[in-house]
Amino acid sequence: MWTSENPHFFIESPQYPQKVGVWAAISQHRVIGPIFFYGNINAARYRDEILSVFLNQLDDEELVITHKINDINNSASVLENVANAVRRRARLCLQEGGSHFQHLL
Length: 105
Fold this sequence. Notes:
Layout: E1 20-26, E2 31-38, H1 43-73, H2 76-95
C-alpha cells in the first residue's frame, strides 16, 4: 500500500509551554528592571540572574547620586538655596505648631 505522506516525517513540539518570568523592583521613585528569565528558577539562578543584576543597577544609582551630591557640594548657590529652604520650612513648621504646613509652601 502506497501513501502520499512520509511515515518518517514528524514535527517536534514542546510538551509544556515555554515559561517566561519577569522581575522588577518598584518604588515610589523608579523602577529597576525588568529582568527577564526563562524556565524554572532556583536559588543559584535567582542570585546570578536577578539579584546580581539588581545590585549592579543599584551600584550604578549610587554612583549617579554620589556625583550629584558632589555637584551640589561644589556649588555655593545651590547650598545657599537649600539652607534658605530649610530655614523657611522650619519657620513655617514652628508657626503652625508642628502641624501640616505644606499648603503654605
